[in-house]
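Input.
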Amino acid sequence: MNANKVNPEDLELEFRWGQLLNKIQKTVGQRPKDLNGVLFLIGVQELGKGHKNFTKEEKQDLMHIAICRVLSKLGFYTLVGTDQEGWPHWELAKPLPQFDLLEQEKLLKNQVLEYFEDEQIF
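Output.
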């Protein structure tokens, strides 16, 4: 197998990802630097409290919320409810697959793209 051969699925994913980042930039006014930036925005959307200055811990929690939300469609997480402050809480419904970092990123990017399509945010 040729290590330099480019997978057409990877090219399609990166094309769609670039389109998403452009749409986010037009809407928010800033292009997210990476997957984490997009996950943060999804977390803010899911929290539903609008933009505010979040603490470092809250930012990590928002990214966790986003990961749980986008992976819930595949059955990995289930929403169990919200706490008194309105933060959603998720539980692991089935074990996550053991992927290397590149495969994890592809899975998350695909699910993020599906999230934006399902939620009809753009």
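Residues 8-118 form one domain.
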